[in-house]
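Fold these two proteins, one after the other.
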Amino acid sequence: MGPVRQPLQLDRDTLEASFRGRSVALLPKEFALLDFLCRHESRSFSREQLLDAVWTMEAPVDRTVDDHIYRLRKKLALWETELGIETLRSVGYKFVYKKREASANPLLGLPAFNEDMRGVADTYLRYGRGDALLALYKNREMFGFDVDPGFGLLIRAMEGDVRFAVDPEAASLKDRAFLLLYLYQYLDPGGNRPFIEAALRDRTLPPVWQNELETMTIIHLLLEWEDYEEALLRLEDRISEARERGWEGLFPYYANLRLAHALHAEGDEDCRLALQQAQEELRRYPYRREEGQFLLLKGLFVYSTDPAGGLANMEQGVAVLGQSQFVLHLLHGLHTILEFARQRGWDGVRRRFEGDWQRLIRSIGLDEIQDEMRRQLGEFFDEEAVL
């Protein structure tokens, strides 16, 4: 049995890159650039995309990316036969491992071990540890477990580049359909609604995604559609089910949903009660992504009476979501803020976060695939019949 490839290790505290027992020190921007490229291994990025991802809110000169790539290559030369940064002419750069040894890990064939490892993955997911989940997924052969295609697509989307969502080689259109629905909702909610309704009516998605749409995602959609009564009924059903089955890990998620509903449809007293309940759940289950969502919802509640405090909470929530490396949750968080700002005429909030939103959708490639997403959704759901 040949050795399994070990990944390049990046230490955020020491700003060091380590591989095969040797380490090199990096400057902060070198570290940030290498970290981004490693998290998107084998994917190419243009200079403009790298500037958006690493030099956010800065004004670097034209040669910034090239200079940093040059310095990184010199430092990674220790391992040039096994890994490195490649140049794609007229495209950009990508990080690659040059040797990919086959794995013959016998643990891959043990169902009980696979189930245990998926439990670990689920725990990372609940606690908002996107960095740990990505590391586990990328090294799944070494750890001896595999994931179903749907979960693999979710993790790929978390990495911060969603262009693959329209790539037929990534998965079948049926396996990608839910992700297309999810992403397209942020760009064209009105245009997406007929496709959502077709999926609910015809039940054409794979079972795991059909269930996700009908039990979880639909509540967010009903809030956007201003069907507050139906959203609350479905939410109460989900909370009752979680209590009956002992799914306490879902309580912070549902508490945030309850708070979102109160912000949309109810008065200040209901919002205060929902806010208190969400805080109590987070004390019991300090999930990072739920904390980020809670902070921005709290900011939306506070803003009417304390604009400075509300903005501070929103900014803190967005920062926490960004740290969790769950790109889809950061996307949802910024979308939530901008939707509230639009509905309530909060121009100051819109101006503060619109730039963050535009940079995010550019950096993950969402704006580039909008037309193709619509075309593929129309193909999958038979657009003529839907419309």
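Now the second one:
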Amino acid sequence: MEDLSDQLPHRHRDAADRSGVLTKRSGEELLNSLTTLRADLAAVIARLQERVGGVRIIGRVRELFLEQRDATGLALQLGGFDRSIIEETEFPEEGEGQTPVLATLPGHPAHEDYLVAHDAQRFSDWIGNDAEHLATRVFHKRDQRLFIANVNRLPAEETLGVDLIYHHVNRDSFILVQYKKMGQVGAGRSEWGYRPDGDLDGQLKRMREVEEACTRLEQDPPTDYRFVHHPCWIKFCKSEQVAPKGDALIGGMYLAREHVEWLRGRPGLAVGPNGGELFGYHTVPRYLDNTTFTQLVQDGWIGTRGRASDIIQAQIKASLDGSRALVFAGLIGDDATQAERTRERRGGSGS
């Protein structure tokens, strides 16, 4: 403590000698002096500051990690699992290499003994072993198991974004969610919006091809009713400068592929103040949020109908070949009833 006091500028030396809340300047000087004396504490102090003020998203490595973290949390939520574990993920330090979200979680991954052997092998075959960054984990509750994999073949700087593929094994149904970042736009940069880039047309074309393949593979007649039986969705999400607190998902808008294309063909919709294309809260009249999208998937109102497993492997390859990171989730086991899920959402109440 004497060394610390001596290291401080004279007018701030009482910061090392008294208790209580320090002024902002005294606090900064104290931390600077502490890390000057003990350089090894800098990383510890940075982690503590991030717990209080949130993790700053600087650089492509953390941007991609945040999207992958969100997709992993969304996969847990779609399966009806507690997503709070993503609060314990550790963001990579600036300048570090890419790390899968699942690799930073505490504890040890569950063994594949928890999975039906056939499905475990199938998931492994679908994903392959040639990814540079790969981490898998199994979560389980009651008679359900949720297999999640974080996969990326390219460095963060060469990766265009994140795809989530969610497969419900018992329904043989799947959903594809592609992430698109919204930036701050408008006067004073007070609004959020996505301006279509050169990749969007190609990605929408790929989505149409996926949906046409799914239509050809549907059971005839379908055995399960859907509001939307096409799998492809885009999540337009905020380009956060600070990671959401706790286990919160990134705010954003979910739009089906056909809805995106419909909006692009309607004058006055998805158009920004200067006349260019813009997907944002103020230009898209209706969209699904995290809560609504999750509930519709959980209750089986959204997703393909039948023989999804015939095309998922191709979609995994297409995501990775398209320079995108992938979060794949496979849910195994019978669903809870809608009444049981409603009680869970209400905290166990029987009303």
